Amino acid sequence: MTIKPPFGHPIRNTHFSFSPTYVPLNHGSFGTFPLSVTQHQNQLQTQALERPDTFIVFDLPVLIDESRAAIAPLLGVDVDEVVFVPNATTGVNVVLRNLRWEEGDVVVCFSTIYGACEKSLVSVGEVLPVQMEVVELQYPVEDEEILGRLEERVGKVRQEGKRIRLAMFDTVLTFPGARMPWERLVAKCKELEVLSLIDGAHGIGHIDLRELGKVAPDFFVSNCHKWLYTPRGCAVFHVPFKNQHLIRTSLPTSHGYQHPNKPPEKIDGKTPFVHLFEFVATIDYSPYACVPAALSFRQKICGGEEEIRKYCFNLARTGGAAVAKILGTHVMDTKSGTMSQCCFANVALPLAFGEGKKFGTDEAPRIQKWLNGTAVREFDTYLQIALHGGIMWVRLSAQIYLEGKDFEWVGYRLKELCVRIEGGEVDR
């Protein structure tokens, strides 16, 4: 007999540590993790306190190897093709700062790129001969158009005599929360002979990535602390064997670095790539070692990855629709529905922006800040809000500890806040 996972408020009350009054509708930004993982991390940190040298030198490498072995099947890749870094931004920077750029080299990305990654590209371009080409996307947009725009921009740049070395894109966008056709984008990159770097910050634990090894991007990084339920400061970094020679140093450069004039060698049976990231300066590595505990919770308590996705995807659709109905607006989606195959719902707010409208687009940041702050102070929740395509959207995250009534609750709170904005409360 299969026992239905206790999703919704039962699992929240039993397995998570939220304040009783807090309504967590923004899981996508920083994630959270269950009590069992908290307890496991506490045990690890206690071991580190009791025997610091022993834990760091002897225990930690074994624990990290166990985590690599546990996570590799979720990506369908070899265990020696995965290591851990603190976050997706670090992984992106590792790639950008390891590739040897030459004059005329270009990285192409989309306008929906995560802000820190865009700034990383700008920063690298300050000291190395690489330029950034941005492909504009305004959602909702169909997958075919995304692919076409990438191919068109690559062709244009090549006509200018420049070389597209790398294309960077997401699995699921940060804002708006939308699934990208990352598998087809990787295939397009191969066709165009361009390296692919996937910022999969919202990937593992969110969408099915078991075919990643077959899709075979050149570089991939994904935060485990967003959707996989590990403590914050843990991301899986995948580099296939064929590209590992391109990654010469961690960030910062640490003990795993091998001198360029010496042939790479295994150390303690570890490949140069694995050894490079095993110990990168002194930080708290306990989040890396919590991967098995997180996966155990997902399997034993939640019923596995498919059950989690099924619940969250459905809640995002039904919950988003409920909020839109309350607000008298709509949920962002495409005719094909592919962009909404994730745990996010983007709901339009009933506020008019633009020329001849109630609010100018220049007023959006002020209104967004007021909405964020007021929701925190008055309703004990956090709202991820931004202007996109001339419309102000709220991005809501569906999770196993939420129910439809949580979405209805925030719908009425948002309606009240928007009425207050229309009444001029922001200007007071």
Which CATH first-tier class of the largest domain would you pick?
Answer: Alpha Beta
Radius of gyration: 22 Å
What portion of residues belong to β-strands? 5-15%
Element pattern in H and E? HHHHEHEHEHEHEHEHEHHHEHEEH
The percent of residues in helical segments reads: 40-55%
The named CATH superfamily of the largest domain: Type I PLP-dependent aspartate aminotransferase-like (Major domain)
CATH architecture of the largest domain: 3-Layer(aba) Sandwich
Number-wise, the strands total 10
Strand line-up across the major sheet: 1-7-6-5-4-2-3
Number of H/I helices: 15
Largest β-sheet summary: 7 strands, mixed
Structural class: alpha/beta
> What is the fold named in CATH at topology level of the largest domain?
Aspartate Aminotransferase, domain 2
Q: How far apart, in Å, are the first and last alpha carbons?
A: 60 Å
Structure notes:
- InterPro entries: Aminotrans_V_dom (IPR000192), PyrdxlP-dep_Trfase (IPR015424), PyrdxlP-dep_Trfase_major (IPR015421).
- The structure is a single chain.
- The chain has 428 residues and is an alpha/beta fold.
- The protein is globular and about 70 Å long.
- It has helices at 9-15, 27-30, 35-50, 52-75, 88-98, 115-127, 143-159, 182-192, 212-215, 224-227, 272-278, 291-300, 305-327, 364-379, 404-422; strands at 82-85, 105-110, 130-135, 163-170, 195-199, 219-223, 235-238, 344-348, 384-388, 391-397.
- The chain folds into two domains: 9-24 and 304-427, Aspartate Aminotransferase, domain 1 (Alpha-Beta Complex), CATH 3.90.1150.170; 42-295, Type I PLP-dependent aspartate aminotransferase-like (Major domain) (Aspartate Aminotransferase, domain 2).
- The strands form two sheets. A seven-stranded mixed β-sheet has the order 1-7-6-5-4-2-3, sandwiched between helices.
